[in-house]
Batch of 4 targets.
Target 1
Amino acid sequence: MRRRLQRPLLGAAALAFGYLAYVYLMLPDVRVLARTNPTTTAFMQLRVEEGREGARKLTLRHRWVGYGQISQNLKRAVVVTEDAAFFDHDGIDLDEIKASLERNWEEGRFTRGASTITQQLAKNLYLSPSRNPVRKLRELFITRRLEASLTKRRILEIYLNVIEWGDGIFGCEAAARAYFGKGASELSREEAALMAGAIINPRELNVGHPNRRLLRRQQIVLRRMGAAE
């Protein structure tokens, strides 16, 4: 009886291992990002395709700027909002995952995520917004590769330059110019907090026309920024 059970279990384990190996081998080579700035992302391509399917042409606004050309206000605002332990963890924040699971269990539904900035970058560059378990597995693998290949400064630089900040607006420079008529290097604390507050849902929370929810988030971000000083 035991042998009969062992065979299918071993077979399932072998299949699972083979699948994981396949997923790992098919991952993108992120090492090029150490010296090359990405010109497009999976999310950019997705938005263009969505526009095409909706019979409208989407013009992407995106302009790369170096780490030193990004306001310290924005860097701080984004880190305290999206991933306060960014400079301390290795891409996966286990404490935040635990807190997320406990909160979701208490509320009986998925209300809180636990993605780090590196995980968000992996998703934006190579994947999709889907919560498919396979997609999430690939995200975790890519996250570990990003952390192994790039410095924290470089990860944050790429992240701020490629994430979505509105309809067709990608990266902090394009967003700063679209919403405030200035470069990302000139953003004030209030402007940076407003932009950071919109990251959670940039196509619903319009930095140019902030609703009550975004204004409340801005105040929360400003308080966190003060506490981080």
Note: The chain is about 60% helix and 5% strand.
Target 2
Amino acid sequence: MEISAACIILVPILLPVVTKLGVDPIHFGIIMCVNLAIGLITLRWVPALFVTCKMGGVTIEDTVKALWPFLLSLIVALLVLTYWPSLFCFMPRLFIR
């Protein structure tokens, strides 16, 4: 699913549940965006890979090989973000006040 469509559909459904569980809405938004970015570059979202390969003039195999470092870094960032939310949420909280 497209990232913007997923946000429009899923956020109104999941946000009340997440806030009832005590998760900060900003933290939830960041986690959701990173998860959707991971989903966009995995092989399940092949149309996006085909489009980028066609635009760049490269093969799908070369693109997938080049995506591994980015995928691993996104997964590590997601783990850090999930278990250390204050690291990522301090800057948005400065602008809210």
Note: The chain has a mean pLDDT of 85.
Target 3
Amino acid sequence: MESIYSQKLLIALLRNEHWSAEDLERALAEDEGRALLSVVVERLGDLFDPELCSVYEDLFRKVIGRVAPDLLVRLRPRQAKPPALPSAPKRVYVLSRITLGADVAVTSVMLDAAKKRWPDAEIFFVGPRKSYEMFAADSRITHREAPYARSGALVDRLRASASLHLEDGVVIDPDSRLTQLGLISVCDAGRYFFFNSRAYKVGLRISESAADWAAETFGVNDARPYVAPLPSCDPPAGITVSLGVGENEAKRIGGDFERELLSALAETGASVLVDKGGSAEESARVERAILPGLRTHDGAFAPFASQIARSNLYVGYDSAGQHVASACGVPVISIFKGYVNRRFFERWSPIGTVIRGDAPDVLDQVRAAITCTFRR
């Protein structure tokens, strides 16, 4: 669906130009508000410009006033100071970032910090089950369901935020969509700790920034990303591959690249396992690219994450798999394309070999990285 009015609103916001209530109304009408979220809100965040945080907050306060005015009483005060650190809370709630990659790169750092700071507390992962499954084998983590329609209409996402209220315990918000990036209160201010991932130490990888924030806020100096999915019963693979792009076609390379990539990996002689993704489109792409002798994974992501952790090399686009591999210390070859600026590229790059997907010799670079990996 066209998003002409959302595009115009984004341009006005980035240029600090005047925009009217009518401009906002037109943007909100595009695809039930989905265009405003994907075109405007996501871009404001993806630019990782600290000055745009207030731009987003001003805009979204008006959005909430128009779409769900009853939620205005739930808005968090502007520039709220972090509360005093409790000594021994019984419960700690860590909110999901909703997307799998961000839950590995950011949310897991907060889970690790909470476990280390409060060893006797019950730690809850608050979010969809699909994300919780990434930590299901960790006995310290309990799941509290908080459904969120990632592709739903704007009003549905706001209602999901409105439905969440945590009556007790410490709440750690890693810039979650559940709170609309820290805007909607889900607990008393004295128990709420907010990590603004769009503004805090934007020169670092996002996991490093989260770890620094955890050290500054909770006094935990060694928090790091991790995963703990239930073990896979399938035989391990030498190389794991994901061609998923999270519905963002700008991240992938067209033509015969994916088939040629899998051919290069097959030439190593290692066993190769390719994830078929979370959509019919991704599954069809894998089917077109797959070669005889290569295995595929079809199903939930957590079992595939378990396979990544057991592999000797992970290869894929900018997606959740690269963050799983990075957290597990598995060598990574990431083909990174579709980033909006250098800050985004640096912020979300995993630890490993990162190849810019818009380079003219991407496949040659991938082949060279494969050779280097198997020579180690």
Note: The CA atoms of residues 2 and 30 lie 7 Å apart.
Target 4
Amino acid sequence: MTRIARVVGGFILLIAGIAMLVLPGPGVLTILGGLALIGQEFPWAQRMLDRIKAAITRLWRSVTQPSA
């Protein structure tokens, strides 16, 4: 029952986040939350979340480190 609730909740967050990309609200954060929930059950979602985390880390490093 917990697995079903996690998957359904994750997909609801994912759909709501996609809608919030054009509507007011924290769409990107909601999508990340949905992927985090779904990623506990599906490897494809975990891989996608890992790629997004790596891209955010690279972006953060490029912004915070002074350019030479």
Note: The mean pLDDT is 91.
